[in-house]
């Protein structure tokens, strides 16, 4: 069994490529509904079960040592990287795997404005080396890690955001707000 947080469409691909059951946990009903629709369209609805709930209380939904994989792409920051690793570990089987992404400092000389923004929004953000130490201290064996390339952010996030902003500026050009 695999627990995922329903932040994105990639879970349909996971369902296609695994024989197990995927539990998709999220607090936002529209995300769960969209996932159910997509799963039905792609004929993998029998492999995905959605749960409206919180990542802070996995014990409400799962037994200890029940999950083969916990997959948290761009969501562990909600609970906190170290806290998530600690709280979720008991729900993994002995040979289970945790797949997470965590925002990390990748340079040493960070501009003041950027540093202040992240300290206000996510003060526990670390550099990669410190995050790797946290992984080890939490009792995990690291298989691998990588830095998402800048092109991925531009192609999959910023380009779409720029187009959407352009549309919103036209639609709301007469709005005082």
Topology:
Elements: E1 2-5, H1 10-16, E2 22-26, H2 29-41, E3 48-52, E4 67-72, H3 81-88, E5 92-100, H4 112-121, H5 128-137, H6 150-171
Parallel strand pairs: 1-2, 1-4, 2-3, 4-5
Count of DSSP helices?
A: 6
Based on CA atoms alone, the radius of gyration comes out at: 19 Å
**Proportion of residues in extended strands:** 15-25%
**Helix and strand string, N-terminal first?**
EHEHEEHEHHH
- What is the spatial order of strands in the main beta sheet? 3-2-1-4-5
Write down the overall mean pLDDT. 91
Helix/strand-derived class? alpha/beta
Tally of strands:
5
Q: Point out poorly predicted stretches.
A: none
Residue share in helix: 25-40%
- Report how far the terminal alpha carbons are from each other: 47 Å
Architecture overview:
The chain has 6 helices and 5 strands; from the N terminus they run E-H-E-H-E-E-H-E-H-H-H. The protein is α/β, with parallel strands linked by helices. Helix 1 (10-16) links the parallel strand 1 and strand 2 (22-26). The chain is globular, with a radius of gyration of 19 Å.
